[in-house]
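Question thread 4412

I'm putting together a teaching handout and wanted feedback from people who do this every day. The idea is simple: show students a protein as raw sequence, then show them the structure tokens that encode its fold, then repeat with a second protein so they can compare. Below is the first pair exactly as I plan to print it.
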Amino acid sequence: MIELVEHTGELEMRIVAPTREALYAEALRGLAGEVSGATGAGRVERRPVEISSSGPDTLLADILNEAIYLMDVDGFVATGVEVEHLEGASLGGVFVGARDPRLRPLVKAATYHGLVVRPVEDGWEGRVVLDV
């Protein structure tokens, strides 16, 4: 489940998923849905990704910022991630997505303000504020 809450110049994304891997994938799907019509239809591309961060919460922001970078420089919209390893605050795997000529690059960055990734009764919960 993804809930988007608009603020002036910001968009808060709240994510709930059964696993931490799924939480990161859902966050990418939510970002893609906000900036693009790419939904996995069309020619699927894969991009290797290796990210190390200071914690599971900052890893969420860093994953989204890497996806935003790929949108800005290459028009590639990551709609998910296939996680090959997730240990502590390090993730390795493959971004899955597509290039989108209709890309609306309105998200500038994922911020650390109010950033949360934590286990909950039914899995994992995350919250991240996107600077738009």
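The second pair follows. I'd like the answer to focus on this one:
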Amino acid sequence: MTELVRLATGDTQPERLQSHREFVDDRRRDLGDAGAVLDAQSTAAYQVRLNELREELEEAEGFNDAGRTERARTEIEFLADELTAGGRGKRAASHAERARLTVTKGIKAALDKLEAAHPALARHLRATVKRGYFCSYTPDPRHPIVWNT
């Protein structure tokens, strides 16, 4: 991932990295972090809020309130992601997290630019490119791609 960050940030001196690879890799591995993303108090507060949101979602769905339903689902998804990341011991401001954010933002920016030139391709890539600590392209088997050659 750090190679992607190097490319995304415009570091165009791979020979510098090649000649000092061991030193650079050792230095990058231990840049420290700002501690755990979630402490016990934050985790408990998130779980309370999740329960409130689930009740709100159920009520909104009962009233067919699409706007309220969408807001509740969005916040539920965000909190669930945060709890999952905190549960895996995710560290705030770690080198890997900074690299993940840089690459994720770069992919998003590229897809935003692509949207103007080729909306269908941008939609396809948004649905099939997974971002995170490991980025991948996984085609949707329900919609096979036929590439023109």
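Top answer:
Good format. For the second protein you could add a caption like this: Confidence is low (pLDDT under 50) at residues 16-27. The longest strand covers residues 129-130.
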